[in-house]
Write a structure and sequence with these properties.
The structure is a single chain. This protein is mainly alpha-helical. Helices cover about 40% and strands about 5% of the residues. The protein has six helices and two strands, in the order H-H-E-H-H-E-H-H. It has a two-stranded antiparallel sheet. The longest helix is centred in the last third of the chain and has 31 residues. The mean pLDDT is about 85.
C-alpha cells in the first residue's frame, strides 16, 4: 500500500492534465465499459490513483475499476465552479471501488473562491487530490486493522 502519492495522476494526462479534454464518453454508464475505459485509454493509466492497485492485472481487479471526481460535483457546485470544468476528464482519476467509496462525502478544505481559469481549477484539483490521498491512506489502514481481526469469525471481539 502506497502512503505517498507518486506524481499526481494528471501528469500522465494529455498536456499534463492542464487543458480541458472534454467530458468522457459514458458508454453503457459503467466505469468498465464507459467513462472509466475512456479515461483509461485517454491517459494510459491502469492503476488506482490512490492505492496503486493494478486494475488490469486480473478479472477481479478489473471488476474494481472505478472513476473518482477529484473535486466532487457537490463541492464544485458549492464553490460555484463551472460544470464544464468539474465534469471534464481533467477532474477524474482512475481508482478502485474501495478508494472511491472511502472518499465519498469528501469536503474541500478551501472556501469559495473565484475559479476564473483552468489553471486555478487545476490547482484546486491537485490540492483536493493530495488531501484525499492522505485521508484514503488513513482509511485503508483502519480497514486493514479490522481485516486483521478477522471480523467474520465468531469471537473476533467485533460482534
Amino acid at each position: 500500500m502506497r502512503t505517498e502519492p507518486s506524481p499526481l495522476p494528471f501528469a500522465a494526462f494529455p498536456y499534463g492534465g492542464r487543458i480541458q479534454l472534454g467530458r468522457p464518453k459514458s458508454g453503457n454508464g459503467t466505469s468498465r465499459t464507459g467513462y472509466g475505459l475512456h479515461l483509461q485509454r485517454l491517459t494510459g493509466q491502469t492503476t488506482c490513483a490512490y492505492c496503486g492497485l493494478d486494475l488490469t492485472s486480473s478479472f477481479e481487479n478489473w471488476l474494481m475499476l472505478s472513476v473518482d471526481h477529484v473535486v466532487p460535483g457537490a463541492e464544485a457546485r458549492r464553490l460555484e465552479i463551472p460544470i464544464d470544468l468539474y465534469e471534464d476528464a481533467i477532474n477524474l482519476a482512475l481508482c478502485c471501488l474501495s478508494c472511491n467509496g472511502f472518499g465519498n462525502r469528501y469536503k474541500c478544505t478551501t472556501e469559495r473562491q473565484a475559479i476564473s481559469s483552468i489553471e486555478t481549477f487545476c490547482e484546486l484539483r491537485d490540492q483536493c487530490f493530495r488531501e484525499r490521498f492522505g485521508l484514503l491512506a488513513q482509511r485503508r489502514l483502519l480497514e486493514l486493522d479490522m481485516f486483521r481481526q478477522s471480523p467474520w469469525t465468531i469471537g473476533s471481539g467485533l460482534d
